[in-house]
UniProtKB/TrEMBL annotation:
Protein name from the UniProt record: Aldo/keto reductase
InterPro entries: AKR2_Oxidoreductase, NAD(P)_OxRdtase_dom_sf, NADP_OxRdtase_dom
SUPFAM superfamilies to which the protein is assigned, alphabetical: NAD(P)-linked oxidoreductase
Classification lineage: Bacteria, Bacillati, Actinomycetota, Actinomycetes, Kitasatosporales
Domain NADP-dependent oxidoreductase residues, every copy: 47-307
TM annotation in the entry: none
């Protein structure tokens, strides 16, 4: 299993990964992103920024990279970087299918920038697209943003397709989203093919504002799944200058940034396998990676626990964030 390479890594940042959602397309919902990227949002400019981030991440010991079909050209940028750094063979690559990017490289696109489809036809199409771009460098393929009502949890034909992919050596997993993440995770744990569990990883939103998936993630971990944490910065809501007062106070006491403290919190969870940084600049990335140096005591954690929002409130606010 590719995640064994991460478990065997000895660098302090072995449990931190880099997600390319923020730099694989010109528009995204992270607060402050309009100032983080270069004035030109051309393909060439974002490819260069992605290369800078990947170089910095790899030099710092990060070995897991997260992309998706709907993250614009993220797979393409990563594949180009891997080709240019042909000596790099220890990176674990995870991608996702189930959303199609529809904004056509526009920041002012009308309507949604991505469209969800968990059908077998969508899987077949996007799997072929990913294979064309990443070839044999794909280690993990996840269903993107599963919710309890997703047909991906009950479609036997799709399950057979995914089991076939697993037989080829690619790990199969899912990501979840929305206020019922826990229910989606528990439903996924029940999905089997020929009596064997289908999913070997689960990626979920978990941060200081949204912790509702925690118990289900612990169950997934106990069942043998690798847990990946996304949106640890709550799409910028936990970064300065947007960070709530309690987080700013704890950050000041630890001597590190709000972002490092925010990412350190999920790292404290015994079930957390990889916590993703969604940095858009190398400076942000370095600051994020300081999460491994944050020492949160019981008092810190108790104060930070007071930031938790009711899941529907959290996801409602997330849904209102503009695409920058």
């Amino acid at each position: 299993m590719p995640f064994a390479r991460l478990a065997a890594a000895t660098t302090p940042t072995a449990h931190l990964g880099l997600g390319l959602a923020a730099v694989g397309r010109p528009g995204y919902i992270t607060l402050g992103r309009e100032a983080d990227l270069p004035p030109s949002r051309s393909v060439e400019a974002l490819r260069e920024r992605t290369f800078d981030l990947l170089d910095a991440a790899y030099a710092s010991g990060v070995r897991y990279i997260d992309v998706a079909r709907s993250y614009g050209r993220s797979e393409e940028f990563l594949a180009a970087w891997l080709h240019a750094r042909s000596d790099v063979r220890d990176v674990v690559v995870g991608s996702k299918w189930g959303y199609t990017y529809t904004a056509d490289w526009r920041t002012d696109a009308e309507g949604p920038h991505e469209v969800k489809d968990h059908s077998v036809a969508a899987y077949d199409r996007q799997r072929a697209e990913t294979a064309e771009v990443l070839g044999d460098r794909l280690d993990l393929y996840q269903i993107h943003s599963v919710t309890p009502e997703s047909p991906a949890l009950t479609d036997k034909e799709l399950h057979a397709r995914l089991a076939g992919l697993a037989a080829e050596g690619v790990t199969v997993g899912l990501s979840v989203s929305g206020p019922e993440q826990a229910a989606a995770i528990r439903a996924a744990l029940e999905v089997t093919v020929d009596g064997e569990p289908l999913f070997r990883t689960v990626q979920a939103t978990y941060n200081l504002l949204e912790t509702s998936a925690g118990p289900a993630l612990a169950e997934a971990h106990d069942a043998g799944l690798t847990v990946l944490v996304k949106e640890g910065m709550a799409n910028g809501r936990l970064a300065a200058p947007h960070a709530p007062a309690a987080l700013r106070e704890v950050a000041e006491e630890t001597g590190l940034g709000c972002d490092a403290v925010a990412l350190a919190a999920p790292l404290c969870e015994p079930w957390a396998g990889v916590v993703l940084s969604g940095a858009a600049t190398s400076v942000q990335l370095v600051s994020n990676l300081h999460a491994t140096a944050v020492d949160l005591d019981t008092g810190h954690l108790e104060r930070l626990a007071g930031l938790v929002e009711e899941p529907r409130e959290y996801w409602g606010r997330r849904g209102e964030l503009p695409w920058h």
